[in-house]
Specification:
Blueprint: E1 11-18, E2 20-21, E3 24-25, E4 30-34, E5 39-43, H1 50-58, E6 65-71, E7 81-84, H2 96-107, H3 114-120, H4 136-149, E8 154-158, H5 166-181, E9 185-189, E10 202-206
Parallel strand pairs: 5-9, 5-10, 7-8, 8-9
Antiparallel strand pairs: 1-4, 1-6, 2-3
Helix pairs in contact: 2-4, 3-4
Length: about 220
């Protein structure tokens, strides 16, 4: 491992993967490999299967056909992924800090402290505020803070910059870039632009087109 690398080297590999719901396929056979320190960006129109692919990779929805797996390193040792959906999963009657503390307790306190994670996403002064008073953008920042309190190598992100302003977009880029520095991998579905300092770290998979696939 390098000085900055935290995670054991893992790759996300899929072959002939068909995703859908209710028996109806939304994607054609997909083949891709996401190496450590790289991000796969999912593009496509609404209904092309971006969210369904993320749900499949998270284990929430079963694939209709094909195969995917985390390979290499210590893939079998403990929870390996975070799924950050388009819903923020926030309890409005709990404070901002209590919400994040709950998720840290559920997912494991292996990353930043609650206070440090809130400061990192720009909510450091709002820890005692009931989460129900947060704006849409602040709620999204709180959801992203869950990625920081519990370290996991694979991030599955559904519209991570939704409801965020330009500073929030910069935050998503910074968090993602740091995660890749640590040897993590990410799959992100978004209509918003994500531009990493090193563009070579990112590949694009366009869904909704026959024979979609990530570039080699």
């Amino acid at each position: 491992m390098t000085e900055r690398q935290v995670f054991s080297p893992l790759s996300l590999v899929a072959t002939g993967l068909v995703c859908g719901r209710g028996g109806m396929a939304l994607t054609h056979e997909l083949a891709f490999a996401v190496a450590p320190g790289r991000c796969l960006l999912l593009r496509g129109a609404n209904g092309s299967g971006k969210t369904t692919l993320l749900l499949t990779l998270s284990g929430i929805v079963a694939p209709l056909d094909g195969f995917f797996a985390l390979e290499g390193g210590e893939a079998e040792a403990g929870p390996a992924l975070h799924y950050c959906g388009h819903r923020n999963a926030i309890k409005p009657r709990l404070t901002v800090a209590e919400n994040l503390g709950f998720w840290a307790a559920v997912n494991g306190t292996t990353g930043l402290s609650v206070a440090d994670a809130l400061a990192e996403v720009g909510l450091g002064r709002l820890g005692d505020l009931d989460a129900g008073y947060l704006s849409a953008g602040q709620s999204r920042r709180l959801a992203l803070a869950r990625l920081l309190v519990s370290l996991r190598p694979l991030w599955l992100l559904d519209e991570p910059a939704a409801a965020l302003d330009s500073e929030g977009h910069d935050l998503v880029t910074r968090l993602l870039d740091r995660h890749l520095d640590m040897g993590g991998i990410a799959v992100a579905a978004t209509h918003d632009p994500i531009t990493l300092p090193d563009p070579s770290r990112m590949e694009t998979l366009v869904l909704g087109a026959r024979n979609s696939g990530a570039p080699p």
